[in-house]
Specification:
This protein has about 250 residues and is α/β, with parallel strands linked by helices. The chain has one domain: NAD(P)-binding Rossmann-like Domain (Rossmann fold, 3-Layer(aba) Sandwich). Helix content is about 45%, strand content about 15%. The protein is built from seven helices and seven strands. It has a seven-stranded parallel β-sheet, sandwiched between helices. Helix 1 links the parallel strand 1 and strand 2. The longest helix has 29 residues. The chain starts with 8 loop residues before the first strand and ends in a 6-residue tail after the last strand. The relative contact order is 0.15.
Length: about 250
Amino acid sequence: MSGKLSGKVALVTGASSGIGEATALALAAEGASVVLVARRANRLENLLQRILEKGGAAITIVTDVTDELQTQNMLHQAQAKWGHVDILVNNAGVMQLGLIDGANTTEWRSMIDVNFLGLTYATHAALPIMKAQGGGHIVNISSTAGLEANVITAVYSATKFAVGAFTEVLRKENHSHKIRVTLIEPGAVATELGAQVTDPNAKAWAEEWMKSKTPLASEDIAAAIIYAVTQPPHVNVNEIVVRPIDQQ
């Protein structure tokens, strides 16, 4: 399949649904060979078949990004398959909302492990590969919750603020190696994230908040990612914030 990314290899974590799924399809449509990564093997297999049926190239690697060894192996498998990894989209994420007092701290650890540590593990494993091949592009998915913290978003926002800080240092440390770095901060997007919320009061609030606006589609965020990764080599799009028009 020809396109702006022909000859490129792109790895997408959290590819089994939502933004990750839409991004994988968009990358494949632009000619990239796509490494589909998530924990749900059946969802990955379905996505793989959709890409192959359209003439694209892809493989699946079932991975829990919170396991550092699995995440290292994921990058090594991708490199072994196609010889290089040009784009890494760190998209895997979970969202739990609720007040700090009385919170289930297991959910806090899950968000820190997936949203932040999983992203850092994948980045850490990708950097030596990208440096050795003379460049690459790392795209980290954050949230507008990483720009403004509100009641019931304490730890979720904390993980996204951490992603923002990590991404800025990543850019500063690696620009001389021709590694581009982009932070994507979506506002309200219609994905499965809200369904993960277990606190009934927080869930009801989140549902009402989403109903008060027309949320973005996952494809809207995928389009922003495609924009960033298809710029000329000397252009580094550092940060993109994408909100629905009716989100304050």
